[in-house]
Design brief:
By secondary structure, this protein is mainly alpha-helical. The longest helix is centred in the middle third of the chain and has 18 residues. It contains 6 helices and no strands.
Length: 116
């Protein structure tokens, strides 16, 4: 999958999250595909507190992960593990497009987390 296809997939995921937002007068939230080199325009502007708090915790976290993936794509880091720098397999990225860890680093991270 090339970078443009990945970007389109991530932006579609972003729109899915935004589609769940209630219609609020006077509050705008948008993304812009017109500027592929402008990461800040690809991200959702959620600076308005009303908009931010209208998102449930899970949607906010998902939106943050999508924006993180878009930033990584823009910086040419999307296909690299954020921890060890190894190349992430294409199959892993297709199944888990928001991941930034290889299987080994993810397993280590999960094993180090305390059980609740």
């Amino acid at each position: 999958m090339n970078d443009k296809m990945i970007q389109q997939r991530l932006l579609a995921m972003q729109q899915e999250v935004l589609a769940k937002l209630p219609d609020m007068d006077g509050i705008s939230y948008q993304t812009s595909e017109g500027c592929p080199d402008c990461v800040s325009e690809q991200q959702v502007d959620i600076t308005d507190l009303k908009l931010l708090f209208s998102l449930d915790v899970e949607s906010r976290q998902r939106l943050n992960r999508i924006n993180h993936a878009l930033n990584r794509l823009h910086r040419k880091e999307y296909r690299r593990c954020a921890n060890c720098g190894s190349t992430l397999p294409e199959e892993r990225l297709e199944l888990l497009p928001l991941t930034d860890l290889c299987e080994g680093c993810e397993a280590t991270t999960l094993s180090n987390q305390p059980l609740h």
